[in-house]
Write a structure and sequence with these properties.
single chain; 171 residues; mainly beta; six-stranded antiparallel sheet; five-stranded mixed sheet
Length: 171
């Protein structure tokens, strides 16, 4: 698939059902080949592409020493979408541009997208319920923090609002 992105996450932790913060990423070649250089450790690679979702529970857990590991990754075709807008919680008319919007399903699938210049997003998903906006990393550069709980939505939903709060302190 063209424009497939492979993102490397740390190994799963007890009590954490999501992938955590990425530790590396690369765009795969047109033939699907990719290479990511990282220090020894345990990782989970996930592939993301336009109109596809990643399946976290089905992804391999790789323990890397000083060797090279070859592995194949699978994508699941999206059958629906969730559209909406990331906004300032105090002023819902102000959309937040360029925000990374991850979404996760109860079965462990993960969809990703970005907001446009006006804060609008369109996430490709499969059927079921999804949790959106639970990651602050895309908001930090704009001086915002997200909700700890995110926003729950079902496949096919439109007009979903994800409010974020302007940060008021730095430490």
């Amino acid at each position: 698939l063209s424009n497939t992105v492979v993102i490397l996450f740390p190994a799963p932790r007890a009590g954490n059902h999501g992938p955590g913060t990425p530790v590396g990423a690369v765009v795969a070649s047109l033939s699907g080949s990719y290479s990511i250089s990282v220090p020894p450790g345990t990782y989970v690679p996930l592939a993301f592409g336009s109109n596809y979702v990643a399946d976290y529970p089905a992804s391999p857990v790789l323990t890397l020493g000083s060797q090279t590991i070859n592995t194949n990754l699978a994508l699941t075709i999206a059958t629906s979408s969730i559209t909406g807008r990331a906004v300032d919680a105090a002023n819902s008319g102000f959309g937040l541009p360029g925000v990374f919007e991850p979404a996760s399903s109860q079965s462990g699938q993960i969809a990703v997208g970005f907001t446009d210049t006006n804060g609008y997003f369109n996430l490709p998903v499969t059927s079921g319920n999804w949790s959106l906006g639970g990651d602050d990393s895309g908001l930090i550069v704009q001086g915002y923090v997200g909700s700890q709980n995110g926003v729950n939505s079902s496949a096919g939903s439109t007009g979903v609002m994800i409010p974020s709060y302007r940060s008021t302190a730095m430490f």
